[in-house]
Amino acid sequence: MNVMVMSGTSDAVKIITYLHAIDDTMITATTTTSYGAKLASDAGADEVKVGGLGLEAMLELIQQKKIDLLLDATHPFASQATETAINAANSAEIEYLRFERPAIPHQTIKNLHVEDFREASKKASELISKTKNGRIMHLAGVSTLPQILEKISPHSIIVRVLPAVYSIKKCLELGIPSENIVAMQGTFSSEFNRVLMAEFNVDVVITKESGESGGTLSKLEAASQLEIPVVMVKRPEIKQLNKYKVYSDISELITEVKKFKSNMG
Prior knowledge:
With 265 residues, this protein is an alpha/beta fold. The chain has 2 domains: 2-102 and 237-263, Rossmann fold (3-Layer(aba) Sandwich), CATH 3.40.50; 112-233, 3-Layer(aba) Sandwich (Rossmann fold). The protein contains 10 helices and 12 strands. Strand 10 (204-208), helix 9 (216-225) and strand 11 (230-233) form a beta-alpha-beta unit. The longest helix is centred in the N-terminal third of the chain and has 14 residues, at 79-92. It is elongated and about 65 Å long.
């Protein structure tokens, strides 16, 4: 069985590890970064393709590797990648499975839900206008900064990004002062997040609904302990996924993969 795993998340790495343990399974992983490629390779991927794939490139890879099953484990906010994957699987007439980390049950945590990052920028701007320091901690990735900066001065934002040249360079190009850039890899405990927020005298936090494995809960808990309002961007709705079962439990997903393999004969 030849499986393509659209990777780039910690969940995808775990999935590749489980797939590697299934006999006679060849794994081709795709990821957008060299760091993600190393993680996928270390987890057991036989080959890793680095870089974003458009529909044509994905179809070519599916044909080249004779893929039987396309497993989409991309980030909940990577909506374009998921749409491309669904279209590619349909065009190639192969099986498509979607894994998506479960959302956080956040009913008891005070936060403000918004639909997109432009709305988040507007809401956060309104909130800091009533605060002493007027400082925002942005915990939603460097790619979303341009939308956030539409309503907010770059000098008001503390940004936590990956310790990658691209991320830091992008922040500087957007006008974020170097002392406002926190370059760190990984997810962090609520205690660590709380100390970081307190250290920078943060008044508002911007994040996105990435799920527990994406560190969302620890960010919300830290902000709650400091009584800091959170502007949290909702996950994008991908209408094409309505036709598919979305798995949020890795063991259940692997069971489905094994069932698919046995049905292949």
